[in-house]
Design goal:
Catalyzes the degradation of hydrogen peroxide (H(2)O(2)) generated by peroxisomal oxidases to water and oxygen, thereby protecting cells from the toxic effects of hydrogen peroxide. This protein is about 30% helix and about 15% strand. It has about 500 residues and is an alpha+beta fold. Bound molecules: protoporphyrin IX containing FE (HEM). The site of protoporphyrin IX containing FE has 29 residues, from strand 2, strand 3, strand 4 and helix 10.
């Protein structure tokens, strides 16, 4: 009988044992003492009870029961790798960030890909956005660019994010997902979701692999140059492997056979020396252009049109190293949008503003107060006044733990001071719902100008197949929004739905 060849990932243990053939190691407890017998607990006679003094067993069991930590509340399922970012073009006139300081400069990076809504064991090939987060280990500290594989996001005020995630996740009563009523209820009530929904249901809603997709910082950031001049910017990273997607049918089939399809692909590619790479670009908008922009440049449900704000090449990044231990380096990696370096600043983007708080907060819960001392999260140097807390590793020697002091403690950084922009702010504090700011013009451009006819018809089928299980009131409401993108889009979704039996429910 013919056998399927084993891939690199399947041979991981075999490879390990080959490489370490000549080594002889003996076992220890986690506190380093030798273990006489790993396969027998300490009992009183053959059938006697196990003794509490069996500290070898206690060491094993107590660690085991704490092996899992809370999974990420979103983006739980993912894969990670390491590599470097290299500058290929000069953008020092826009930013003083040292990561971009000279052509040819290389900075080590970590990348984590993920899907958004599923839990840790969820199949990789579901229809969902994909996370694409990059950690730059720069000489000025950690810069985390926590992006997705789509240039826009569903909602544009951070206060709506938890509700939006709830409708993507499980129904709290039935514990089932997707719950089509929850999903379409929110999508149809918040029309700013339309633009991203079109991308979700397009071919790009299910990438063929993590290597075959682009990445986007999505939110708007700001650059500050050495003269203190501020411009707004968006980040794009375009795949050199080409865009490849899976059809819904292919994806469903794969999900039944290999839940870790994307994770396996990434691991094997890197292990086999087929290193994936992306080219890195920025878009730049001056504050004067932002003030006159016909669309809100700080609204993440909108793109900046490339015709007006072209992609400016900056560099490339390559992933050439798999993690040595998944848990230590991928499960425990923490990307935080607030990890910015001098020369890169936030913008008034409302989603970004909420994210600046939320990631550090969730890390303190998920990973603990000292997660930045874990090797994968740790910057090259830290001279701070924070101390102690659970799992402290770095005590910072004998330097003073208070400021100001007279004992050579670290002082303010002059360069960072010069690069901190003065932001003129004024206004009346007020809750202003921004969900109705022209949600259809850009979605229309995407539908009419970007998508080809065959892509449009697959989009319609995908939307209809998700609309089919919900009730007719929500279907009608969703179709009203899709018709505002393009009359014929709404019509064709309606026609496609007419081939199914739908359930009418009064709401
Ligand atoms: C107000 C809006 C948002 C909030 C409150 C939020 C919150 C979170 C939280 C709590 C996590 C889990 C982090 C962890 O446990 O380490 C997370 C992960 C993530 N978020 Fe967001 N998020 C928001 C919007 C976005 C947007 C717009 C994007 C994309 C541009 C995005 C991309 C990601 C990615 C890629 C991850 C996974 C990071 C990793 O691989 O560890 N998020 N988000």
């Amino acid at each position: 009988m013919a056998t399927t060849p084993r891939d690199t990932a399947a041979n991981q243990l075999l490879e390990y044992s080959r490489k370490h053939e000549d080594e002889e190691k003996t076992m220890t407890t986690s506190f380093g003492t030798p273990i006489p017998d790993k396969n027998a607990s300490l009992t009183v006679g053959y059938h006697g009870p196990i003794l509490l003094q069996d500290w070898i067993l206690l060491d094993e069991l107590s660690h085991f029961s704490r092996e899992r930590i809370p999974e990420r509340v979103v983006h739980a399922k993912g894969a990670g790798a390491f590599g470097y970012f290299e500058v290929t073009h000069d953008i020092t006139h826009y930013t003083a960030a040292t990561v971009f300081s000279e052509i040819g400069k290389k900075t080590p990076i970590a990348v984590r890909f993920s899907q958004v809504a599923g839990e840790l064991g969820y199949p990789d090939t579901v229809r969902d956005l994909r996370g694409f987060a990059i950690k730059f280990y720069t000489e000025d500290g950690i810069w985390d660019l926590v992006g997705n594989n789509q240039p826009v996001f569903f909602v544009n005020d951070c206060i709506n994010f938890p509700s939006f995630i709830h409708v993507m996740k499980r129904n709290p009563k039935t514990h089932l997902r997707p719950d089509y009523d929850m999903f379409w209820d929110m999508i149809s009530l918040r029309p700013e979701t339309t633009h991203t929904a079109l991308i979700l249901f397009s071919d790009r809603g299910i990438p063929a692999s993590y290597r075959n997709m682009h990445g986007y910082g999505t939110n708007t950031f700001a650059f500050v140059n050495n003269h203190g001049k501020l411009v707004y910017c968006k980040f794009h990273y375009l795949t050199n492997q080409g865009i490849l997607n899976l059809s819904s049918e292919e994806a469903q089939k794969i999900a039944g056979v290999d839940t870790d399809y994307h994770t396996r692909d990434l691991y094997n590619a890197i292990e086999n020396g087929d290193y994936p790479s992306w080219n890195f670009y920025v878009q730049i908008m001056t504050p004067e252009q932002a003030a006159k922009s016909p669309y809100d440049p700080f609204d993440d449900s909108k793109v900046w049109l490339h015709a007006d704000y072209p992609l400016i090449p900056v560099g490339r990044f390559v992933l050439n190293k798999n993690p040595k231990n998944y848990f230590a380096e991928v499960e425990q990696i923490g990307f935080d949008v607030a990890h910015l370096i001098p020369g890169i600043e936030p913008s008034p983007d409302r989603m970004l503003q909420g994210r600046l708080f939320n990631y550090g907060d969730t890390h303190r819960y998920r990973l603990g107060v000292n997660s930045l001392q874990l090797p994968v999260n740790s910057p090259f140097k830290v001279h701070s006044y924070t101390r102690d807390g659970r799992s402290t590793i770095n005590s910072q020697g004998g330097t003073p733990n208070y400021h100001p002091n007279s004992f050579k403690g670290p002082e303010n950084d002059r360069r960072a001071q010069a690069l901190s922009p003065s932001l003129p702010l004024s206004g009346v504090a007020k809750r202003i719902d921004n969900g109705n700011d022209d949600n259809f013009t850009q979605a229309r451009l995407l539908y009419q100008r970007v998508l080809k006819p065959d892509e449009r018809s697959r989009l319609i089928q995908n939307i209809a197949s998700w609309l089919k299980p919900t009730n007719s009131v929500l279907q009608d409401r969703a179709i009203v929004n899709f018709s505002k993108v393009d009359e014929s889009l709404g019509q064709q979704i309606r026609e496609e739905l007419n081939s199914y039996v739908t359930h009418h429910v009064d709401l």
